[in-house]
Amino acid sequence: MIPRPAALHPAHPWAFWTFLTALALLTPGLLHPQTWSFLSGVDLIFHEAGHVLFMPFGETLYLMGGSLFQVLLPLALAGVFLWRGEGVSCAALLLWTAQSLGNVSVYVADAQARLLPLLGDDPDSHDWWQLLGSWNALAASHTLGNLLWFLSIVTALAAVWTAYIGTRFGSTGGRNA
Question: So where does this one cross the membrane (predicted)?
Answer without folding.
Answer: 61-83, 147-166
